[in-house]
Amino acid sequence: MEFPMTAMAAVISAAASIIAWHFNCRKRSAPLNWPVVGMMPALLWNIHNIYDYASKLVVHNGGTFKFRGPWMTRDLFELVTSNPANLEYILKKDFSNFPSGPHLKEAFFDMFGDGLFTADDELWKRQRKAVGMALASATFRDRNSFLLHKMVQEKLLPALQLATENRTDIDLQDILLRFNFDNICMNVLGRDPGCLGDENLPTKDSFARAFDEAIESCTYRLMVPSLIWKFMRFLNVGFEKKLGKALAIIGEFTAEMVEGRIKQIEAEGGSKGDILSNFIEMETDEGRSPSLKLLQELILSIFLAGRDTTAISLSWFFWLVSMHPNVERKIVSEISQILKSKLLENNINEMGLFDIKDLRGMNYLQAALSDSMRLFPSVPVIYREAAKQNILPDGTHVRKGSKLLCFIYATGHMESLWGKDALEFVPERWINEVGLCVKEWDCKFPVFNAGPRACLGRDIAYVSMKFMAANILARYQLKLCSAHPVKPKFGLTLTMKHGLRVTLDSRKNIV
């Protein structure tokens, strides 16, 4: 009996050693680096709360953390950093050495192809130039302002009013995503797909659902070795099967929309201020004839940038405001003062909406939106690959081909940058001594990216969010449904996993 007892003791001793090692690693804020599978078990174990888990991990390790993936694979990210100096170096100073890279493009190619989101080098420059010229033009800005007024009046507010009158709860995130999808289609293509219609819960959203499912599936490709997801694609199983179905819907929708817009452009003779026609015009002037496929890929990239980011940011904003009555009171007070001034000047427009110029005086509202995006950036990570060996400002060595995650979510949660109340919603941190909302260094507040790939629509996004938030809060008080869980969903964007279910009460005596 001596041998079995010795063997059992060895097993118990080994198990105890593993457990002790595990807890020792946890005390050092580092996940267990298992043989063969690396740190992947810890990542999967915490996938339900991945952003907060990873944020604490990165922050506790000085702002940069080296992730050890499974043995014999280099498909997964290897370095995670939230350090602003590193972000500035990667996104701005040594931008050419840190492209999006072939791995990201491979994972998302079936959806975005050579579109702006995945393109690098010359093709990326051409598309960005066209979009930048469109967004900077007075024609586009006037058109965007007109459409925003019109669609808030005719689509968004009626949907909210119907829910108020019927005393029904709504998923506000879903409403905002639908609204933004219609709005971005009008701005990009000049056509309204009717995702948010006259009825309470319109059903014309098959493309929007397919878009979300495709983004989710492609994001999973970044989390597993390429051989695995390619084999799944070959077998047509799991998230690859879902992706295939979603791409079929996306392809049919975008082809119809783009072909229809091209026929309109040809019939009307030239650009009408939307992004697609501006891009076609620029390419034609430079002697190129953009393919239907490239045009579809470009608008999908713009959908990603314009639809999700604003709607998601507003969803987190409204949730935070509903949880902080003191912030809501200050926003409503600011809105009320502007409305009183407009009444005194007899400057209330026929639609009863704020004008774009009114938004300039809403400093506290802008501060609240900024602090909300700091805590919950709509794009929580930026993916990059190193084209050559390098050393980051904090001394971290980066080898050629390394996959890096610029962890924007963690940057907004760092006490070293934002103080002891870094995890709290405090709009006042953005207000200076004369009451104006200040701008922060884009690598301390990188929610709109930074450097050459910085968001071209930052100013337009702020205008849209302020306009929508002000017109909603002037009319309604939002209350979160009891016991409704609010948590981020794992993915490319920081969508609320269960949506944002709220009830609405009409706001009285705003002026």
TrEMBL record:
The keyword Secreted does not apply. Keywords: Heme, Iron, Metal-binding, Monooxygenase, Oxidoreductase, Taxol biosynthesis. SUPFAM superfamilies: Cytochrome P450. Its cofactor is heme. Gene3D superfamilies: Cytochrome P450. Pathway: Alkaloid biosynthesis; taxol biosynthesis. Heme binds at residue 455. GO terms for biological process: paclitaxel biosynthetic process. InterPro entries: Cyt_P450, Cyt_P450_CS, Cyt_P450_E_grp-I, Cyt_P450_sf. One of its GO terms (molecular function) is iron ion binding. Belongs to the cytochrome P450 family. This is Cytochrome P450. It comes from Taxus chinensis (Chinese yew).
